[in-house]
Amino acid sequence: MEIVEKRPWLKKYPEGVNHEVNPEAYKSLIDLVEKGLSEHAASEAYTFMDKTMSFSELDQLSKDFAAYLQGLGLQKGDRVALQMPNCMQYPIALFGLIRAGLVVVNTNPLYTPREMKHQFKDSGAKAIVVVANFAYNLDKVIADTDIKHVVVTQLGDRLGFPKKQIVNFVVKTVKKMVPAYSLPGHVMFNDALKIGSSKTYKRPEVKNTDMAFIQYTGGTTGVSKGAVLDHKNLIANVEGISEWFKPKIGVVKDPTILGALPFYHIFALTLNALSGMKLGFHNIMIANPRDQPSLIKDLKKYPVTIFPGLNTLFNALANNPDFQALDFSKLKITIAGGMALQKFVADGWEKLTGCPIVEGYGLSETSPVLSCNPVDGNQQIGTIGIPFPSTMMRILKDDGSWAEVGEVGEICANGPQVMSGYYNRTEETEKVFTKDDNGDLYFKTGDIGMQLESGYFKIVDRKKDMILVSGFNVYPNEIEDVIVDHPGVLEVACIGVKDERSTEAVKVFVVRKDPNLDEDTLRAFAKENLTAYKCPKHIEFRDELPKTNVGKILRRALKEEEEAKAK
Q1: Positive or negative: CA dihedral 193, 196, 201, 203
Q2: Which of 206, 240, 268 is the last residue of a domain?
Q3: Per-residue pLDDT at 482 exceeds 60
């Protein structure tokens, strides 16, 4: 009775879904991976550009890659960066790293050299697997990092003859998407697999508490921080996902999941790759979800059971006549994350597909899922659902006391999926944790929300000043730090403004040092130094910026001006 009073949401759990999970269900992710590879050996694991790889093939190839990495002299706990879009090579490399006992450092392949350099240096990565399209950026920074081993792959490398040759030729020669690079001593991905196949794989001794991933996330200081996720963190979330989906896919044979979200992002990493390994998902990998004709073509060939996505993706597809003509009879679960789900989008999707969207919530620091709407029809649109199994969520008020139901404050969470801290950042780690009266440690998400009478949680505001662009967090300090480096800029302030397509867009207000500085010049400078979604969509030049009496720029005042204009 006491448990239910403290966790009223337990009454909302679907029948058969356990309230608790065992984060020690496996000794390590290696055990989870090897069990999944064995249990689902005969099933299809990944399909990319119509080429399918079975779990049995993935078993051998990931083992070969693990043996190759061990042959380089890499030891358990060494960090290795993965910098690839969704393609067949990603799961081979991912599970190869895990099986070798190495720490995975996922990196967005669209990062600029400046952003890449920070993460490579900060993590101390000793090796990298990079897609050829972006190797030129690595070429610019590798000398300033600890990276000694480079594996390069072309997009079509695992597609077989003749498709491999055709795709790689088109990407490199026709579309000219592979700028020239020089990385002396690099090894091509297929050659690495061949070398590994001649070596003996040695299974390392790995504990639950050993580091498994350094998953980078934005920081309010403008510095990207690496969330340290151990094996137990990820196992706990995989076990939670398995429980949560049980009412819908427990009886589905060979469930198929759409892999449109990037696997280097924590959402798809845990849901598609790791949970897919345990549950035997057949992942339909999509390199570019913005290419709607290709995405819809794949969905027609491979009807999916599970459809993870973002509000913007659901909205765009639901308004596409070709998507409307698809057969949705196999679709059991549609799950939204990354950004707020709009009611009109949710209603339109359910009317079209017959499958309601369940919205969840989480962060890189929490592996990622903290809460989700139930999949049994009890979802409440506009909320982030109820806490996951073994997860406690509370609201912390500004005065440091814990809020009652209906009171607003910072969402805090305690659970086995919560990170141990930020890599090599003790001070930053201490800032995001607090203890309750019982001494239990809670992670402070920075998001402002409330618990409803029903036990469901609702976000009422986001982290102070953070900008949400198509599900990606953008931090104003980072944008300002880049823009102010331009010699023609004296001062800059960055805020987010409403945008119908991407929830918010980046806007900067600039005081010029050089009166001849124009928008085109500043945009080009931003493009050189920032990933596309971080680049300012709006630039406004001003003679001065609003400030406090001590000279601090008032972003809030600028935000209020923009909100007033929009009314």
Answers
A1: negative
A2: 206
A3: yes
Q: Which amino acid is at 116?
A: M
With contact defined as beta carbons under 8 Å apart, do 23 and 416 qualify?
yes
Q: Is the separation of the CB atoms in 512 and 482 below 8 Å?
A: no
Asked whether residue 536 is assigned to any structural domain, the reply reads yes
Last residue of a domain, one of 206, 222, 244: 206
Q: What do you get for the CA distance between the two ends of the chain, in Å?
A: 49
How far does CA 136 lie from the centroid of its chain? 24
Inter-axis angle of helices 189-197 and 55-71, nearest 10: 90
* 182, two tokens: 């020089």
Distance from C-alpha of 107 to C-alpha of 84, rounded to nearest angstrom? 8
* Contact between 216 and 364 (Cβ < 8 Å): yes
Average pLDDT for residues 38-55, to the nearest whole number? 98
Range of the domain at 105: 53-206
CATH of the domain at 556: 3.30.300.30
Structure tokens at 161: 């003859």
Q: In which element (H, E) is residue 214 found?
A: strand 211-217
Q: Work out the burial of residue 543: count CB atoms within 10 Å of its CB; fewer than 13 is exposed, 13-18 middle, 19 or more buried.
A: exposed
What H or E segment, with its residue span, contains residue 240? helix 231-249
| Of the candidates 275, 243, 265, the residue with the CA atom closest to the CA atom of residue 388 | 243
Confirm whether 378 is domain-assigned: no
Q: How far is CA 307 from the centre of its chain?
A: 16
- Listed in sequence order, the residues at least 6 apart from 323 whose beta carbon sits closer than 8 Å to its beta carbon are 292, 296, 299, 317
What is the pLDDT, as a whole number, of residue 259?
A: 97
CATH number at residue 98: 3.40.50.980
Residue 156 lies in a domain: yes
pLDDT score recorded for residue 556: 83
User: Parallel, antiparallel, or unpaired: how do β-strands 256-259 and 149-153 relate?
Assistant: unpaired
CA distance 336 to 415: 22
pLDDT mean over 532-560? 86
Q: Which of 60-64, 222-226, 258-262 has the lowest mean pLDDT?
A: 222-226
| 1 pLDDT above the threshold of 80 | no
Cβ–Cβ < 8 Å for 191, 157: no
Q: How far is CA 319 from the centre of its chain?
A: 25
Long-range CB contacts for residues 179-187, cutoff 8 Å, separation at least 24 = 179/136, 180/136, 181/132, 181/135, 181/136, 181/138, 181/139, 182/139, 183/135, 183/138, 183/139, 183/142, 183/150, 183/152, 185/150, 186/135, 186/150, 186/151, 186/152, 187/149, 187/150, 187/151, 187/152
Q: In total, how many domains does the chain have? A: 2
Secondary structure element (H or E) that encloses residue 6, with its range: helix 2-6
Cβ atoms of 343 and 381 closer than 8 Å: yes
pLDDT in tens, 90-148: 999 999 999 999 999 999 998 999 999 999 999 999 999 999 999 999 999 999 999 99
Task: Look up residue 264 and give its DSSP letter.
Answer: T
* String of DSSP letters for 97-133: HHHTTPEEEE--TT--HHHHHHHHHHHT--EEEEEGG
Would residue 88 count as lying in a domain? yes
Q: Which residue has the higher pLDDT, 471 or 213?
A: 213
Nearest to 118 by CA among 465, 478, 475: 478
* Gap between the Cα atoms of 284 and 258, Å rounded: 5
